[in-house]
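[[Encoded backbone]]
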Amino acid sequence: MAEDYKLTDNEERHQYEFHIDKYVPRIEYIKSKNGEIYLTHTEVPVALEGKGIGSQLIEKALIDIESKGLRLVPLCPFVAGYLQKHPDWKRIVMRGINV
């Protein structure tokens, strides 16, 4: 089981991130002025792959997005795949978007 990592919302770099040793797995995003957040790209360093870190990163980002009342537009295939496996999260996806 992966450790429990602390999510950082790095607004300056427009990304959610974990800091794991020297690595920074991240989800890049674009926030619109009217309350949408577009998750555009997820990147987990090769050294950390296969440890469930990407899924934990997405889950914690979704919790943050929901707590801020934002509407999610998942442009990243990895995020879209996560939503298909965890369909209850589709509650925060912007209406009219098919995942």
About this structure: The mean pLDDT is 96.
